[in-house]
Amino acid sequence: MVRESKSTHSSPTFCVRKPNGKWRMVHALNKLHAATIPVSTPIPRKDVLQNNMAGCTILSALDMVDGYYQLLMRESDIPLMAVSTPSGMLWEWLVMPQGLSNTPVTFNRLVTQLFRPRRQFVQTYFDDIFVHSRASEGNTAVEAHLAHLREVLLCMRENRLYANINKCIFGAEEIPKDLRKWLGLANYLHKYSANYAKMARALTNLLKKDAV
């Protein structure tokens, strides 16, 4: 993800402690941010995503492993991402690191464009991919869902995108804690959505221990 650099640019590197006691490497990119033109890309609205999944009876959630690191930097931009370390070494990122101002919206734009042709059964929110299905055209919900998952996974393979299998859930046999937080954030928008409780039922039911 990095290589030794001879760039004339440099941003300092340091570590901060995370709530779980582990350390996270960060870079002071203030000067780079000041010279960066912000990318204008719409952020997906949680209430719209939830509306699109309403009525589906089986869902899967895919979590992109180290999502931002899957974005390759343009070769001409790599020297700008040179970072110095306490040991005196200079390294430059070959992928988009966390902390870069345009990284989240750039990643969101990528996954949105990739899965736009499949938006009837795929919703994306940054590094989360939600696949939702229902019985249709003579196929059971499970049959439809397997076909949808296969198409999503093939798209990811073709574009060299990788999921964290430990954080993925298939067929809604259990639900990761992120969905609970997601629903909590979406809940405050319920007054703007007609029949919110009905639309959210498929997702809230997944919080039950016997969800299938």
From TrEMBL:
**Coiled-coil residues:** none
- Residue span(s) of domain Reverse transcriptase: 1-187
Give the matching SUPFAM superfamilies: DNA/RNA polymerases (SSF56672)
Give the protein name, as stated in the record: Reverse transcriptase domain-containing protein
Tell me the organism: Phytophthora fragariae
Question: Highest lineage ranks of the organism?
Answer: Eukaryota, Sar, Stramenopiles, Oomycota, Peronosporomycetes
